[in-house]
Fold this sequence. Notes:
The chain has helices at residues 3-26, 35-38, 40-43, 52-62, 68-85, 89-103, 112-123, 125-133, 140-155, 162-174. With 183 residues, the chain is an all-alpha fold.
Amino acid sequence: xxxxxxxxxxxxxxxxxxxxxxxxxxxxxxxxxxxxxxxxxxxxxxxxxxxxxxxxxxxxxxxxxxxxxxxxxxxxxxxxxxxxxxxxxxxxxxxxxxxxxxxxxxxxxxxxxxxxxxxxxxxxxxxxxxxxxxxxxxxxxxxxxxxxxxxxxxxxxxxxxxxxxxxxxxxxxxxxxxxxxxx
Length: 183
């Protein structure tokens, strides 16, 4: 898995944890003025990039005992970002291995999002750690091809026969995926 998708996965769990705690503590979804709602974007920002005002707002939220689960999840999120920002791939792999090992088992009750994240990261461990063994690799070419195929699928509306769809795909690919005059 590439860094974007790993960080997005952990960030999603962070948001879900924040939303769950918001609901449990205040009994409603986030509204302006609610502490956890007010730090949505701050929580997704790398700690070293926070301004003094943002650090103060975050510290105020983390000081509340009811937000311990959010604090733990936020800490894991920051560790994952630190792993990918490490100057040496070996150091990054070491940090990521420590994170995966910490959350793959023995997560206390009340951290449902981390338990789910731990299961996913345990299952995808080799994929996640492979990035550090092959630095500079990207799934950009794969994403580009997927984008072209999605475009092709969108322009091939109405094809019911897979044979006709494949023929259309081969035609479009052989002529450089031009969109003019064919749709």
